[in-house]
Amino acid sequence: DTFTVPSGVIMSGQNYPAFEATGSADQTGVADNTWTKLTLNTEIFDTNSMYDTGAYRFTPTIAGKYNVYGQVGIYSNTSWQLQIPNLAIYKNGSNYKYSANNEQNTYYPNERTLNITAVLEMNGSSDYVELYARGNVISGTVAFETSTLTGIFGAYRIGS
Fold first, then answer.
1. Which of 4, 22, 113, 156 is the most buried (most CB within 10 A)?
2. Sign, CA torsion 30/33/36/39
3. What is the pLDDT of residues 76-109, one digit of tens each?
4. 6-15, long-range: CB within 8 Å, 24+ apart, which pairs?
């Protein structure tokens, strides 16, 4: 079999730049029904130093399409009060894609772990992505499990 690579295409076999981050501690006492940026301040890896651990955002300086993903545990600080948990990928400060979850009104859980993924076009200069979450509880406050076992935010370039 023969495989022909078009002129100008670079084949590296690697999906760079790429990063994955987690949090050093959970976020607790978060206000009800409020979109909140997840404080994922610990890099697991960052191939090109493009993830900002202080601003919790990824700003790739290479244009292209990126697979962006995230995971977080959302729970009620008051047992069995979680009504609507959401997880979102924000691009340039605006909600780009979010998970829509709505619990039955006869039974409310205490916690849900949510996952999200999206393919985004990044311009390689000013575009950035962040991970946000929101929890709507019947009463009390919300917490986000952003520590190593549950909270993950990452991205990798999949092509031009």
1. 22
2. positive
3. 887 778 888 999 999 999 999 999 776 666 666 7
4. 15/67, 15/156, 15/157, 15/158
